[in-house]
Design goal:
Elements (H helix, E strand, L loop, with lengths): L19 H56 L3 H16 L3 H18 L4 H24 L1
Helix pairs in contact: 1-2, 1-3, 1-4, 2-3, 3-4
Length: 144
């Protein structure tokens, strides 16, 4: 009977194989990794969508600030109205929540509407700014 000695560099004629249990464990591990990856991806996408909607609300609030400033300038508002508008600006800046900023901006628009009651173009602009805030806030709230 001949004796066969294998050296470390020699390749075996057959490859080692996993048992049936080992293949099942590897397959289950791959499924878990893929599902975890999909879950993480969906969470990241959801957070990006929420951030984009929050940015849309904040853009609408900034637009409303500009519209309110222009409306008071167009009707030649007195210094008391300008001071009240500055108070609304500070309140918007101090607010931390997106919905709080939107609420303060809507109150600012309501105040400015009371000051520009005779100028229909400014009333339309202010109502448009309010509608932009409402739509953006509704989309933001529905995402939460």
């Amino acid at each position: 009977m001949p004796l066969e000695i294998n050296k470390p560099g020699d390749a075996l004629g057959e490859r080692p194989r996993l048992s049936r249990f080992g293949r099942g464990v590897v397959a289950a591990g791959l499924v878990v990794v893929v599902l975890a990856g999909l879950l993480i991806f969906s969470l990241v996408q959801g957070n990006q969508r929420k951030a984009a909607l929050a940015a849309a609300v904040l853009d609408a609030v900034e637009r409303s600030r500009l519209v309110c400033t222009n409306a008071l300038g167009a009707v030649g508002a007195d210094s008391e109205a300008i001071a009240a508008l500055e108070g609304f600006y500070r309140r918007i800046e101090d607010e931390n929540q997106v919905s709080g900023k939107a609420t303060a901006a809507q109150e600012m628009i309501t105040y400015v509407l009371s000051q520009v009651h005779g100028n229909q173009a400014q009333v339309d602009e202010l109502n448009g700014a309010r509608n932009r805030i409402l739509v953006a806030l509704q989309q933001y709230e529905s995402q939460r």
